[in-house]
Amino acid sequence: MELSIPVEKSSLSYGWSDPKIFFKMDYKLLFTVFTAVFIAELGDKTQLATMLFAADKEVSKMTIFFGASLALILTSAIGVLLGGVIAQYISTKHLHYLAGVGFIGIGIWTLLKA
């Protein structure tokens, strides 16, 4: 006996309802995402805050490591979930344009503020 759950076809394209897509490991994409996030986080305020917590000689470095790791995992999960939801309403092409415009705007704002 096979159990099937009715799912809208559009939601399958985002990988949320189809286990074959949800659990598929694309190592090229994994490396790309890891590299992009790793480089973006180097010297970021998150890393600086973690270093400040770790600078205290009276605290457990393992506690700081796990606390920072859990926070990064949670923020990443939120990003993945929101990205999946937003992609159901806005095309990937438009999301790329929006992200590009956003980064350019932040860059201009940073230059003007410097």
From TrEMBL:
It is found in: Membrane. Keywords: Membrane, Transmembrane, Transmembrane helix. One of its GO terms (cellular component) is membrane. It comes from the Bacteria. The chain crosses the membrane at residues 27-43, 64-89, 95-112. Pfam families: GDT1 (PF01169). The keyword Membrane applies. InterPro entries: GDT1-like. GO terms for molecular function: metal ion transmembrane transporter activity. It is a multi-pass membrane protein. Belongs to the GDT1 family. This is GDT1 family protein. It comes from Nitrosomonas communis.
